[in-house]
Amino acid sequence: MAKKEGFLEKVMGNPEQQKRVYLVVILIIGLILLSMYRAGSEDSMRIENNAPVSKDVQDKSDFELQRLEREIAASLARILSDIDGAGKVVVEVSLAKGPEFLYIEDRTNTQKTTEERDDRGGTRDIIEVSYTQKTVIAKNRDGDEPVLSQIIPSEVRGVLVVAEGADDSEVRLALSRAVSTLLDIPPHRVEVVTGKGD
Predict the structure, then answer these.
(1) Best CA proximity match to 89, nearest among 101, 102, 75
(2) Quick one: which of 128, 168, 172, 197 is 20 to 30 A from 104 by CA?
(3) Rounded Cα gap, residues 40 and 30, in angstroms
(4) Predicted local confidence at residue 73, as pLDDT
(5) Is 73 helix (H, G, I), strand (E, B) or coil?
(6) What's the mean pLDDT in 77-101?
(7) Do 24 and 11 share a structural domain?
(8) How many domains does one find in the chain?
């Protein structure tokens, strides 16, 4: 009675099939290495982006955030004081973070595969992968500057509105809705209180 051959014996017994199996194994290993390389490069980019910021840069960032808070508050106060019955209005704005600027990047992924053969008939594939990323720079009359792709608006933590007319519930509701609409924030982040009349 003849012994039954298993699948692996059939595949590995044929030299042509062996080459195909080796090629598939090498391809799978290459893909695994490629995915590990990409994951590693993304981690290293994240580490660079989360690098500690110097005190001078942090102070400047805090100053810019406070300046932006004052500008938004002044603009809101001008608009809200025009609401019928609001009276004198004072506004304070608290931002969680300032706007975020995203720039267009030129990204290049290259993959080069080289097949080497040795004198015994064996083959080996070498896969080289490279990844480059550069910010796109445009020339204008003021000099070179990066090309802006998107601006993510500031994140508002909360707004306090102090208005003389806020003792009227309709005025208080109108002030709250106006702030929610203008800043695109939920009403629970807006507090409207009555101010003392001078």
Answers:
(1) 75
(2) 128
(3) 15
(4) 92
(5) helix
(6) 90
(7) yes
(8) 3
Token pair in block for residue 14 = 């044929």
Structure tokens at 6: 């298993």
CA distance linking residue 110 with residue 129, whole number of Å: 6
Structure tokens at 152: 């993510």
- Could you tell me if 163 and 171 are in contact, meaning their C-beta atoms sit under 8 angstroms apart? yes
User: How far does CA 73 lie from the centroid of its chain?
Assistant: 27
Asked if residue 178 lies in contact with residue 113, where contact means CB atoms within 8 angstroms, the answer is no
How many whole angstroms separate alpha carbon 135 and alpha carbon 175?
43
The Cα–Cα gap between 73 and 179 comes to 10
Could you please report the per-residue DSSP string of 15-63? Answer: HHHHHHHHHHHHHHHHHHHHHHHHHHHHHHHHHHHTSPPPHHHHHHHHH
Q: Are 112 and 93 in the same domain?
A: no
Q: What CA dihedral angle connects 165, 169, 173 and 179, to 10 degrees?
A: 30
Chain length of the chain: 198
> How far is it, in rounded angstroms, from Cα 25 to Cα 123?
13
**What is the model's pTM?**
0.53
Model pLDDT for residues 7-57, shown as the tens digit of each residue: 555 555 666 666 676 676 677 777 777 666 655 444 444 434 444 545 555
Let me know whether 70 and 139 are in one domain. no
**Among candidate residues 41, 43, 22, 32, the one with its CA nearest the CA of residue 122:** 22
Q: How many CB atoms lie within 10 A of CB 195?
A: 17
